[in-house]
Amino acid sequence: MKQTILAVSVLFVMNCWSQTKPKVDFTTANASIKFDIAEHLILGDITYQFTVNEATDTIKIDAKNMMIQGLKLNGQTPKYHYNKNQIIFTQGYNVGENTVSISYKTNPKQALYYVGSGTDLQIWTQGQGKYTSHWLPSFDDYNEKVIFNTKITFETGYDVLSNGLLDAKTVSGKQTTWSYKMTKPMSSYLVMMAIGKFDKKTEKSASGITIENYIRPIDASKYATTYQHTKKMFDFLEKQTGFVYPWQIYRNIPVEDFMYGGMENTSSTIFNSDYVVDNIGFNDKTFVNVNAHEMAHQWFGNLVTAKTNQDHWLQEGFATYYALLAEREVYGVDYFYWKLYEMAELITKDAKENKNTAVFSEKATTVTYYQKGAWMLFYLSSQIGEANFNTVVKNYLQKYAFSNATTQDFLNEVKAVSPNFNTDNYKRNWLENKAFNTKDALFLIENSPLVKSYFEVLALQSKGFEVKKETLLKLLKDSNTPANTKREIVFQLHKVPYADAKEFYQTVMQSNDVKVRQALAQIISEIPTEFLEDYKLLLNDNSYITREIVFKNLWLQNEAFRPTLLDQTETWKGFNDNNLRISWLMFALSTQNYKNDKKAHLYSELENYAYNKYNSNIRTNAINAMWYLNPYDSNTLPHLVNALVHHNSRFQKFGKDAIIRLCEKKEFKEHFKKLIPYLPQDEHDALKKLMETI
Questions:
Q1: Using only C-alpha atoms, what is the Rg of the chain?
Q2: Of 648, 658, 667, 666, whose CA–CA distance to 690 is shortest?
Q3: Closest by alpha carbon to 562, among 571, 573, 554, 570?
Q4: Contact present, 384 and 421 (Cβ < 8 Å)
Q5: Is 603 helix (H, G, I), strand (E, B) or coil?
Q6: Strand residues in 219-288 grouped as ranges (E)
Q7: 318 Cβ partners below 8 Å, 6+ apart?
Q8: pTM above 0.85, yes or no
């Protein structure tokens, strides 16, 4: 690849904003960063201005695995210590104003990622938990709040995004410089950068904030479905929190192969491009909840940041709950209570399987911090009243804005608004309790018409079909019966012979609800002959999940229909992970006397999806399809080794587990060992390390 040099200049303005002056207060920083794209090398210079408020023997800046090229403190070359984690000064600074300049090089193994190549190149960062210091000397401590102004120079034709407002954009030959400016402080883990080729559309919130939504040009037709309800939820959160959006602008940026659903970088959320969906995919998965969750973080996490790891629920629990409140605004109260019920089920299961399930904890499970944290807030709101709860949150945000807070700080605000509510009992019985008060929780939602209807049908699960048949059929035919209740009715048909359930099947097929029809597709393992023609109609449902289920079932159970089925579905693609196209290739290659003259080409297309130019979901699907055709396909082996060095931990695990499984056969174990000397250095080291354990 042609070598490209990327220049980045970052101006930080840092301010402690804590209620007591710190000994050292970093106030300003100007950073200039260049990227050698071919070598994935960062060449950086950064100058900090800081105030020493009282004498201190040590000053530290976090910087992971960097090569320090030079350092000046107040214009002089000081003595300092660098331990590959921190730059430590013990002299050369004075009480009052100081300046330190650092030049460095680094090839970060975390926090900054290169995805794709050529015109498909994307570069993006992921700083949470304490990773920004892998590419930028900064501060791992969440309590250090920083104002970041960034100047980034990159090849013209790419879009370059960072935190804050775009203050200036200057084109100079083949390079374009993008200057971003912020006015308020944030923690270093929220620093972001995203580079790629995007289309952009903007809208204005009710308060006048510009909302920028980005999308790859190839996905332009998916813009409207992907970004549904964005403005409505933004307006709702501003009103619901009682605190005007504090960051001047808001952006949504989809990136390839992101390891999570999304990341709430201040003013500029990065999210997984898997949530970029068309009108069919929207029925299966949407960006709406992730969108609302990361948006809510702009208040809960970015504006007010948890002071300690024990307080992490103040970020994730709040963001989860306020995302649900935003969805209530979009989808209604029944949806809100249904999601609370689903969360309660998930929390109860998590509490049975894990030990670290207290919300107020340093090492709680993800479900605990997110869903259980949200339930803690719903319970609190139900006890003190929603109006009082809203006042508590507003006061909390105002008091700790651009600062850090503890759980006790939040409870103090509860006590101030609702003095009769026993916060000590609440903390002990709910926040510190590893168990989940399921009975008390369900009592709060059981009167919701949707939940009540669902519980009534759920209670019939153990009943014989003939006993409940009339009741279930009546509910299924009733247009007022909630869709989730109807889905449960369909699931209870799982072991009922078709002859007995025929009227149920016919009723479902007349339904316009995609999810109810999908439930029928999910329970059918063997297609009844009499139902075959109706079953084929599900191939046209507006759901990629339903289509994949039905496509696979029809291919497996109706050999004579296979060529016709494949002809009908040849142009399918499916989600962004190409699920339908890869399934089609797999079955086309498995079908005797079907496109025999093209099978070599079809296999090449399938294997091509396993290469690292595609995202890890596509690669996983392709490798699984290759295994379906041949469980020991040797063409998968290089792709599995490459997975070991992928930035996505799920794909790493996929590759690792597969290699371990294959090495149960002596010939594969020997093959992998012989492969090691010929691999690129990173793959060489990763495979060698793994083979030493097998």
A1: 28
A2: 658
A3: 554
A4: yes
A5: helix
A6: 249-255, 262-263, 268-272
A7: 296, 299, 300, 301, 373, 374, 377
A8: yes
What Å distances lie between residue 665 and 104, 659, 694, CA to CA? 47, 10, 12
- Look up residue 337 and give its two tokens: 């209570």
Dist. CA 637–CA 643, nearest whole Å: 10
The SS3 call for residue 141 is coil
d(CA 428, CA 444): 20
d(CA 602, CA 588): 8
- Distance, in Å, from the CA atom of 293 to the CA atom of 287, rounded to the nearest integer, reads 10
pLDDT in tens, 117-136: 888 999 999 999 899 999 99
In whole angstroms, how far apart are CA 226 and each of 200, 206, 271, 275, 287? 13, 21, 12, 7, 6
Helices 407-417 & 386-400 angle (0-180, nearest 10): 130
* pLDDT one-digit tens code per residue, 450-474: 999 999 999 999 999 999 999 999 9
Name residue, tokens 């009546």: 474
What are the distances in angstroms from CA 271 to CA 7, 234, 335? 24, 17, 24
* Alpha carbon distance 476, 244 (integer Å): 46
Collapsed DSSP state (helix, strand, coil) of residue 50:
strand
